[in-house]
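User: Assemble these into one structure.

Assistant: Restating your components, then the assembled model:
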Amino acid sequence: MDLDKYDIVVIGSGPAGFATAVRAVQLGAKVAIIEKSFIGGTCLNCGCLPTKFLWQALKLKQRIQKSYEYGFKVNSEPIIFSDILAKKDRNIANLRKGMRTILSSYNVDIIEGVASFRDKNNLIVSNNEGNNILEIFANKIVIASGTSPSVMKGFAFEGNKIINSTDALNLKEIPKNMLVVGGGAIGIEMATIFSGFGCYVTLAENENCLLPNEDREVSEEVKRNLIKQGVDVLVSCFDALNNIDKYEKVLIVIGRMPNNDLKLERAGIKTIGKGFLETNEFCQTNVSNIYAVGDIAGKSLLAYTAQNEGAIAAENAVKMNSISIDNSVIPQVVFSMPQSSSVKVSNFLKCRDVIYGKFPFTANSRAFIEKERSGFVKCAVDKANKKPLAFWIVGAHSDELINFASQIIKSDINKISRESVFHPSFSESLFNAYEDAFDKCVDLAKKI
Amino acid sequence: MDLDKYDIVVIGSGPAGFATAVRAVQLGAKVAIIEKSFIGGTCLNCGCLPTKFLWQALKLKQRIQKSYEYGFKVNSEPIIFSDILAKKDRNIANLRKGMRTILSSYNVDIIEGVASFRDKNNLIVSNNEGNNILEIFANKIVIASGTSPSVMKGFAFEGNKIINSTDALNLKEIPKNMLVVGGGAIGIEMATIFSGFGCYVTLAENENCLLPNEDREVSEEVKRNLIKQGVDVLVSCFDALNNIDKYEKVLIVIGRMPNNDLKLERAGIKTIGKGFLETNEFCQTNVSNIYAVGDIAGKSLLAYTAQNEGAIAAENAVKMNSISIDNSVIPQVVFSMPQSSSVKVSNFLKCRDVIYGKFPFTANSRAFIEKERSGFVKCAVDKANKKPLAFWIVGAHSDELINFASQIIKSDINKISRESVFHPSFSESLFNAYEDAFDKCVDLAKKI
């Protein structure tokens, strides 16, 4: 068996691992990436992107149904879900090809197999049958092995009736009915998509509202839209799984657990909590030449923070830099219909003397023209210094608008400039909500 | 004749006049607004909004045509342009009603008629027949009378063959062919819309490129997209009007001229250039109790700067404040298909040691999934301090993304934070283009 030597070996090719590998080469390192499944990890293959494809298809279906609002006459044939799935699979395959092209252009060696530690510098790669096929020496190792859907005790995923989010994305047809267990971001997205394509969905959450960590007005708006779409929403529901006979499918989306089956103990790597890897602000584990980035580090389980951590780990590992991650301003998006997004200063819950402004999209002329009048922008402002502290946006384009909001929050400014926001745009509503906090919005009728 | 007395009288109810009136009441003033035509001015009635309605209809038409990319089978009946126009008119009427509701809620008196000065505190309102119907005393007057389409010498608008942008929006059907004279924002938007709905359009510009003040790569991309759509684009074209027999319609869009027919000399108000009103940074004319805001002040002829000026003029007029307008960061959007947008620091042309980054939307996974792969983001960065100096975005959603870009420019920062931009979003491409300026983009193949 050859012993290949690398400056950096990355375990996993999702957003975190991919960013690590490319950046490490940009900085001059010789790099390999070990991937046990598809290039792109959860985000590309069974997370962000396939769900966005289906969500986007649903969006278009709904827009076509409402195209009479522009004076169009359109006849749609019944939608064949397997046709959409085939297109989805082709799109994802193309995106995978794109990632492979980038890795090749940077001469990253892609090693297909299952990684485990021999010691803190040596990794064993085995095939799916468990046979060791390769051993690799790495000066530094970056673990980006990700997470998998959490299992609910007594309800193991068997891929037929009891399914996880990955299974759901590969169903060949829309089930007649489905119980979705878990009212967080993934549960809401799945309920929205499947219900939108004709499945009778029951969504069960054991907290007393959907998105329990979100602003209550947002959570209520999302719930209202799900109900309007035909979803049966059950909150404070502890017994959803007591009677699953009546459901064709039971989709359990109650969180994600770390893929830590890497024989970490052989390298002396410490885990915390549910088995996530302990890392410092430099993305370094307790073993100084080993870094952990993305989901496996358990910091925020988001693709964009993962990419950021990957690039930073590469800088620190290759250049001996000490760049810290900064998770103080992180936007969040839920793909309900319309989307629901939020961003806050990190110490928001400790802020005192907060005033609020709100602007409904019914009062935004662009939303009116674009027939996307649902939802609102809500803004929290520090009364004393007039700085915006948080934005919540439920509405079309909020997944793009929230980046504008993040930049406002990050800028630490005490006004939003009217002349810097294009008219007519949805983005204006951020300005309007901010102005409303001071009762100075000119695009709303006077409050009585 | 009664002599009504007001703290503030506003001439014109477009974005500038409307914002002035509402803000003035919010600050405690008794306010009237004089409007000689429809509430909402050019923006609502024959500018931003009706064009956006038609553009949005075209966008939906194109999305429906490409819906097979999601596996849909859709049959559209031929589009009847007059049906779209009817919907447009109803939408605009509804938005007008909304503006009227807001003005009423603030007890702004809406006076219908043509305003002219008697002296610096007294205005005469006459009806369309030229008879004086009212005289008003105002402590302070804010002129927001707007602009009208510029006339080309020898080609007066007669509303039949030689038409302006207002006429174009009220055509009852799509002409077989049309010459559009003027390759600026309005000409490009009109060419895009009419060509999109089946008119054979020739677009003539006498400079050597479209959008002559814009980045050349952007101008070329816009031109390429127009040609792809079937528009015949003529640049360096001085003789377009020599042979207009072959065109059913000739649309002249070569700029706008001030509506200054207000007997300004009776109040001693100075004009500059082509007849715009001279104002200082506080939106004040040379006559201290008279302000001018929006198009008539000739600063930027944009609805959002107009709203800003209106609100500032109200603060200064009512509260004796000295708030200055700040036009240092103003986004610009052209409704080509896809949209083209830009924003720069105000001294951009003087910047030295500028480096550039570029990111194509073909490499953005959300654009890939959303089937909006056309265009790019280009970013200019100060090499020495790493501050972003300008963004140009040609692509879907760029009219929203440009507000994020404006905020980045306004923030005067020396990095864009990966973790603060949601994935998957179009907005990420701003981050990617910025990183590319340093050859550090991880989402592009290595340059050879």
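Chain A touches chain B through 99 residues (CB under 8 Å).
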